[in-house]
Amino acid sequence: MLYKTIQPNRVVMGKLPHGGDLLKELTLVCEEEKVSLGTIAAIGAVQKANIGFYDQQERTYRFTEFDRPLEIAALTGNISMRDGKPMVHAHLTLADDKSACFAGHLGPGTTVFACEFVITACDGPAFVREYDEQTGLPLWTL
């Protein structure tokens, strides 16, 4: 087990623009606010969604598109650095009009209807993502 102690230092709260790409907009906030380490949470709704499942055998994400309105029941994730830029890694739980839920890795192409977010920026040693041979994923090097 590898871990480091970090300290929260500020909170950034806001809402994302209607029609924006959820992942892109969250990343833009991190870039503008110079958040390179932290956690993220959000609620709201999307017009359409793109969520993924990592196939461990194939070492690739399989994405499913939902071309319909869905509620963001939960979005949770973290912010670290990859290739010198902030990277948002988030998982998303979505609910339809019958309360059926769908969940997975937040992918590009998820369009915001309304979204309120909370980013907790932290101080501490850099968490940098690099290719991990064992999993095929860009994981933290601690």
Counting DSSP E segments of at least 2 residues, the number of strands comes to 9
Principal-axes geometry comes out as: globular
Radius of gyration: 15 Å
Sheet bearing the most strands, described? 7 strands, antiparallel
Low-confidence stretches: none
Explained architecture:
The protein has 142 residues and is mainly beta. Helix content is 8%, strand content 62%. It has one helix and nine strands. The chain has one helix at 22-32; strands at 7-16, 38-55, 60-66, 70-82, 85-95, 101-106, 111-123, 128-132, 137-141. Strands 1, 2, 3, 4, 5, 6 and 7 form a seven-stranded antiparallel β-sheet that branches. The protein has a two-stranded antiparallel sheet with strand order 8-9. The model has no long low-confidence stretch (mean pLDDT 97).
Record keyword descriptors for this entry.
9 strands; about 140 residues; about 60% strand; mainly beta; about 10% helix; single chain
